[in-house]
Specification:
The chain is mainly alpha-helical. The chain contains four helices and no strands.
């Protein structure tokens, strides 16, 4: 595998290195694991569609776009209320 150089602020590098060390990983190993486990927007959308289809098959739950937007707004409100807003 070819290596790549990425320029980030030293503070960000140091923070990531500290997090990696706490997990007994090198910064390189930590960033590789992070990249392997994060989803792209397209992958997230695909998984959301799969979950929606599974719910529809399982119990018939299949909200339309307006209902989904309403539920997202309610979740955002509750997260903000709890201090964990997105």
């Amino acid at each position: 595998m070819a290596d790549a150089n990425i320029r980030i602020p030293a503070e960000a590098r140091d923070r990531l290195a500290e997090i990696a060390a706490a997990e007994h990983l090198s910064l390189r190993a930590y960033l590789t694991r992070l990249a392997d486990n994060l989803l792209t927007p397209a992958e997230r959308a695909e998984r959301a569609e799969q979950a929606r289809a599974a719910l529809a098959d399982w119990n018939g739950y299949d909200p339309d776009a307006a209902r989904t937007e309403q539920l997202d707004a309610e979740l955002d409100r509750r997260l903000a209320e709890a201090g964990g807003g997105r």
